UniProtKB/TrEMBL annotation:
Database matches in InterPro entries: Ser/Thr_Dehydratase, Ser/Thr_deHydtase_PyrdxlP-BS, TrpB-like_PALP, TrpB-like_PALP_sf
Cofactor(s) needed by this chain: pyridoxal 5'-phosphate
Protein name: Threonine dehydratase
UniProtKB keywords: Lyase, Pyridoxal phosphate
Organism lineage: Bacteria, Bacillati, Bacillota, Tissierellia, Tissierellales
Length: 318
């Protein structure tokens, strides 16, 4: 894959979507910085429209579709946040949408999608994408993949534009599910700076890219268990695999018990409402998987906040 102009496409995407998304805050986490003895920042995509970074990629994709294509409606497969983004855009455009969610998705996320007027269809983690593609083929709807779509990844990478416009010499720590976010971030980051690193974190029981890198090709995994419900994809994206292989500096895993510790710190000490999936980057630091010194600037990508406080408390206390 030719990466030389990837960053230019991300800049164009930023212009394409800028009127539809927020430039979310980039803040220093004082308590956690003091605890770890280094500077820890966070990009708060839990404060994005739809409370997730996913809207960036969906808007970028939709802005490239023709009016005729949009009239056919949208369909996707999702663990929740991407589905909410698709449903939000469909509602804005006044077109139908169908979202195939996995049985592991939370009731809260399913209801948010229904409240936006989209039809929710429950399937399994393993079969949800096949079912969404079948619907697209039979009903003529436009299928928007959450990660294996270069237009979507391009949109997700726009959050890196916002970060690197403010600061450099960073370690960007990115939760990895389908791979669309980290591939978009890496394409932009590695195109504009030599001084920042991109580090991905997968749940210990969902090592789809860790395994794929060892195998030298995209390799499916068996479904495991994790509290990070937004990172439960078992199928690596072919496009994301190439970018992760070629441009991501490091890829590590994190155990659930450290995700839980991170969630506790973010919720009780920094007063942030974030999903377990969004806490995995801090979890990996607490687990000792990411090395740093007191001169580093660590940036945690807080991907989403579609969770309520009682659920967070139940997870922390379980």
């Amino acid at each position: 894959m030719d990466y030389r102009n990837g960053y230019k496409d991300t800049i164009k995407a930023r212009e394409r979507i800028r009127d539809y998304v927020y430039d979310t805050p980039l803040i220093r986490l004082d308590y956690i910085s003091e605890l770890l003895g280094t500077s820890v920042y966070t990009k708060l995509e839990n404060m994005q429209r739809t409370n997730s970074f996913k809207i960036r990629g969906v808007i970028n994709k939709i802005r490239k579709l023709s009016d005729e294509e949009l009239k056919r409606g949208l369909v996707t497969a999702s663990s929740g946040n991407h589905g909410k983004a698709v449903a939000t855009c469909a509602k804005m455009l006044g077109i139908p949408a169908k979202v195939v969610v996995s049985e592991t998705s939370t009731d809260l996320k399913r209801q948010m999608i229904r409240d936006l007027g989209a039809e929710v269809i429950v399937s399994t983690v393993e079969k949800r994408f096949d079912l969404a593609r079948e619907i697209a083929d039979k009903e003529g709807m436009i299928f928007i993949h959450p990660s294996d779509d270069l237009d979507v990844s391009e949109g997700q990478g726009t959050l890196a534009v916002e970060i690197l416009n403010k600061m450099d010499h960073l370690k960007l720590i990115v939760p990895v599910g389908g791979g669309g976010l980290i591939s978009g971030i890496a394409l932009y980051t590695k195109g504009v700076t030599r001084w920042s690193k991109v580090i991905g974190v997968e749940p210990e029981n969902f090592q789809r890219y860790t395994k794929s890198l060892k195998e030298g090709r995209p390799t499916n995994i068996k479904k495991g268990e994790t509290i990070a419900d937004g990172l439960m994809s078992i199928t690596p994206s072919a496009n994301a695999f190439e970018v992760i292989r070629d441009l991501v500096d490091d890829l590590v895993t994190c155990q659930d018990k450290f995700i839980k510790k991170a969630l506790d710190l973010l919720y009780n000490k920094e007063k942030l409402i974030v999903e377990p999936s969004a806490a995995i980057g801090l979890g990996a630091i607490l687990e000792g998987k990411i090395k740093y010194d007191n001169r580093d600037k660590l940036v945690l990508i807080i991907t989403a906040g579609n969770v309520d406080g009682s659920t967070i408390e139940n997870i922390i206390n379980s």
